[in-house]
């Protein structure tokens, strides 16, 4: 019987991501920093910093954009939370979650006080994404639909593997780090639409950092945490024998590039991006006004809306995970801004349109081979009072791997997130990171 923990650890220890993966890692790093800096000072972030000040500790690691340091563990927690605070950070379809906002904060906490090359850092990041994506494929769809938040449950293991690779741990030590991270895995989707949801990313980043730190100090635990009846794959998986997906064809290509990361221009759940694009298309088809609308149908394949847990959201925060809110928002305002997703009660004008939206499911509609995620689509159908019916179907929204953002769009996202001077510093540091002997320029740029 295959020892999956040992097999995975051995692959991580001896990996060497290619130049394509490194180029993709640079884009992911740029997007993560843009998402984090856009989040800026949040109420939860301020609360965390107050806690760190009370707790004390060695203040060595920068809290992104805050001109303030914290301990490595604290910084992993904060920087992980910050990257996911607005739900503006990247998505990977194999993960069914957000890899960079977990992996990169953990790596930064290790790297900021060590001596590591930029290339090694980017390789470690690519390997972390690889582990998290393969765990997502292995664990199966039922993990998510049962209520687990993959970003949280899979992220700690991926971050631990990335940190272990960065520090050149042996395969045996990586097995131990996987075990310490896996035993901490947690995170429930019923927290979507609350401040705890982005905290999941921070907690997973912290878990990954702590797992590598404790392993480095010599803590001994199980070396077969993924395996057996009581192992992670059985406890969290859907009962299928899909463990081969964890390691098969490792290194033939890298999942940070293929299928790649999905970068976001809007601050809401990617599962609603299809509907947003469909609304844009509908608005270009006809000059109808809101009062003309009789009803709106949003049609999915069965389970295609699992992440959108709020059908009657009360606030913009909950609206991030509500297709009813996103459709009403885009049909009313033609776009979405950061201010549309906060603690405020949803305006009556938007709620009037929301009340016309219903969800439907159709298993007979054939998914497109180019759908992102695989097997998904969203159809928005608007019935007008005059009897006309407008319809738009989207299989792969803008920003997804089938319709990726350009480098100019990614850089504009960064430009919009911080001062011109800081944006220039970050671009310079990221672009040259694979040739840099240390990470000092990057660390200084993100403060």
From TrEMBL:
<dbReference type="InterPro" id="IPR045336">
    <property type="entry name" value="MmgE_PrpD_N"/>
</dbReference>
<feature type="domain" description="MmgE/PrpD N-terminal">
    <location>
        <begin position="10"/>
        <end position="241"/>
    </location>
</feature>
<dbReference type="Pfam" id="PF03972">
    <property type="entry name" value="MmgE_PrpD_N"/>
</dbReference>
<dbReference type="InterPro" id="IPR045337">
    <property type="entry name" value="MmgE_PrpD_C"/>
</dbReference>
<dbReference type="InterPro" id="IPR005656">
    <property type="entry name" value="MmgE_PrpD"/>
</dbReference>
<dbReference type="InterPro" id="IPR042188">
    <property type="entry name" value="MmgE/PrpD_sf_2"/>
</dbReference>
<dbReference type="InterPro" id="IPR042183">
    <property type="entry name" value="MmgE/PrpD_sf_1"/>
</dbReference>
<dbReference type="InterPro" id="IPR036148">
    <property type="entry name" value="MmgE/PrpD_sf"/>
</dbReference>
<protein>
    <submittedName>
        <fullName>MmgE/PrpD family protein</fullName>
    </submittedName>
</protein>
<comment type="similarity">
    <text>Belongs to the PrpD family.</text>
</comment>
<feature type="domain" description="MmgE/PrpD C-terminal">
    <location>
        <begin position="266"/>
        <end position="419"/>
    </location>
</feature>
<dbReference type="Pfam" id="PF19305">
    <property type="entry name" value="MmgE_PrpD_C"/>
</dbReference>
